[in-house]
Amino acid sequence: MRKEDCFYLGKVVSKYSFKGEVLVKLDTDDPEAYENMESVFVSLGNNLVPFFIDRCRLHKSNLLRIDFEKVKTEAEADRIMGATLHLPLSMLPKLSGNQFYYHEVIGFSVIDAVHGNIGTVQSVNDSTAQALFEVQKENKQLLIPINDEIVTKVNRDAKTITVTTPEGLVSLYLE
Known about the structure:
Layout: E1 6-15, E2 22-26, E3 39-44, E4 47-59, E5 63-68, H1 74-79, E6 84-88, E7 109-112, E8 116-125, E9 132-137, E10 140-145, E11 151-155, E12 160-163, H2 169-174
């Protein structure tokens, strides 16, 4: 399995017991959806390795306590500390309306209410306090904040995102 075909689920953050159980910090709004998994892909080096699960359950808010089939000692748990967990993209729940996954909208055209087509989504920068669409228009890059006030419509069939940007934002980049 390639990382490009998977989504990031979370990261092993600590050991839970001397029997090899680990705690995984999930990166999801719906941790309950991942309570009864049978397997995950664990990133070891440059590879995604399938790990089968004996038992997993929620631990506190967004932590998942996992007992892997082949991790039964503290030393084996140490080997996967800090590793990231991934699942195939096909396991992502389908979203509708104006909800979207960042990877899903790459290549979509961005249509501004005032300026019309302002370019194509090249990537999403979510490393900042405010997630941003990185939009390419000819040789210029525009950064458009992602929030409910600005993103007014997502059309998956037409591959467009309609936005209403603050006054002056688009002209700042295009003039």
